[in-house]
Amino acid sequence: MKTTLFIGLLIGAISFGTKASTWANASGKxxxxxxxxxxSDPYGVWVTLExxxxxxxxxxxxxxxxxxxxxxxIVYSGLLTSKVSGGNVTIQTDRSKNxxxxxxxxxxxx
Length: 110
Hints:
Blueprint (H helix, E strand, L loop, with lengths): L1 H19 L3 E12 L9 E5 L12 E4 L6 H14 L2 E6 L9 E2 L2 E3 L1
Parallel strand pairs: 3-5
Antiparallel strand pairs: 1-2, 1-4, 2-3, 4-6
């Protein structure tokens, strides 16, 4: 009984750790924000961090904001405020990419 419980907890911890390890952070100051009037995931809102920023492997300095994200306006507003104020941002990504090869923004810390 104890062995079965231990094995169950161990499997749960391993699977949680595997899922949690897909998240990665990029951090730095915003160099520029590109916005298309008729957006989509490949061409909607792109955020580029300044050269020398910390980026996760597999991602460049530029990230995209998912076109149908429910908080897109709030996130965009925060990104724009950070760009204007010159503050640092941390972008969390799961490294999923759009058609142009950019990593998707999951969460932003201003």
